[in-house]
Design a protein that fits this description.
CATH class of the largest domain: Alpha Beta
CATH architecture of the largest domain: 3-Layer(aba) Sandwich
Shape: globular
Radius of gyration: 24 Å
Number of strands: 10
CATH superfamily of the largest domain: Vaccinia Virus protein VP39
Order of helices and strands: HHEEHHEHEHEEHHEEHEHE
Largest sheet: 8 strands, mixed
Structural class: alpha/beta
Strand content: 15-25%
Distance between the termini: 43 Å
Number of domains: 2
Number of helices: 10
């Protein structure tokens, strides 16, 4: 019976988890009755007294219901955080930052429509010599890919949302960049071609979301794309931000605890403010704030 529960709970249901759990619980009832009668699939499994009493069968049924509901709830929550939430943002049907019913690419909460200032400053410092391969984790609509293409030999962008991938490819085409490409992929289950393939990685608000699914897997994801000695420029939310404004607020200790075990060594970590976006501007007006959200700008090197 436990094997059956595990098999069922391992599935990724398309319907809401509570509906699926109710339907599967009916199977649990049938299974419990079969155990009580000593007959499973028409095959007698015990003498005439059966394997348990009717009361015990009812208790088994309730336990199975609870297990199914909990496992399906967790499965559904992970799928939401890992994929569906981002499809919703890019497709417009999930826009909690807006008062209107649907969002647009122009009104994505983190999108300024320009390359991220922290990345521009990093490149202007001469951090890349033009011969490196670079990747953006969670490339979104592609503005940073075009910027990176001017400083690297080859650039790859990765995003889990098909709409983002199309938008990023359009940005590359418009700019006539020849050394950039974009892939649709799940960074928590990345294709082999990305593993250890890059000298530089840029991440603006992606790791902070991946770690909501799994801290260990998120660390492995961002570290795993780098060669030994490769560097990561990482932008995340900052726990010193007093307002809940979108970026996941992390302490410096949380950053280190998540990334050092993955083989990264911290080079620098400084507070900064995210670029202004339309969503952040509206937030500031509504709440009487004078600036975009506070974040961490950190630089890491892969040491193992």
């Amino acid at each position: 019976m436990n094997d059956l529960v595990g098999l069922i709970a391992a599935t990724q249901p398309a319907e809401p988890w509570d509906f699926v759990a109710d339907r599967l619980a009916a199977l649990a009832d049938a299974g419990a009755r079969a155990v009580a009668s000593g007959t499973i699939g028409g095959v007698r499994t015990a003498p005439s007294l059966g394997l348990c009493t009717a009361q015990e069968a009812e208790a088994i049924s309730e336990l199975l219901r609870a297990q199914l509901r909990e496992r399906l709830r967790k499965s559904d929550q992970e799928e939401w955080l890992r994929r569906r939430k981002w499809l919703g943002f890019y497709e417009g049907w999930h826009a909690p930052h807006l008062s209107c019913a649907r969002g647009t690419l122009e009104l994505l909460p983190w999108r300024s429509g320009k390359p991220t200032t922290a990345l521009v400053e990093h490149l202007a410092s001469g951090a890349l010599d033009g011969s490196v391969s670079a990747i953006e984790l969670g490339c979104g609509t592609g503005e940073n890919l075009v910027c990176l293409a001017g400083a690297a030999r080859a650039v790859t962008g990765v995003d889990i949302a098909p709409v983002a991938v199309v938008a990023a490819q359009e940005a590359i085409t418009r700019s006539r960049v020849q050394n950039a490409r974009v892939l649709e992929a799940d960074l928590l289950a990345p294709p082999d071609e990305l593993q250890g393939a890059f000298d530089f990685a840029f991440d603006c608000q992606t790791y902070q979301c991946l770690r909501q699914v799994s801290i260990v897997a998120a660390g492995a994801a961002v570290a795993g794309v780098l060669r030994l000695g490769g560097t990561l420029l990482l932008l995340t939310g900052n726990a010193d931000e007093p307002e809940e404004r979108g970026p996941v607020r992390l302490t410096r200790r949380e950053l280190e605890d998540g990334l050092v075990p993955a083989g990264l060594e911290l080079v620098s970590c400084d507070p900064f403010f995210f670029d202004e976006t339309e969503a952040y501007r509206v937030q500031a007006e509504e709440r009487g704030l004078a600036r975009p959200p506070r974040g961490w700008r950190s630089l890491w090197v892969r040491v193992r």
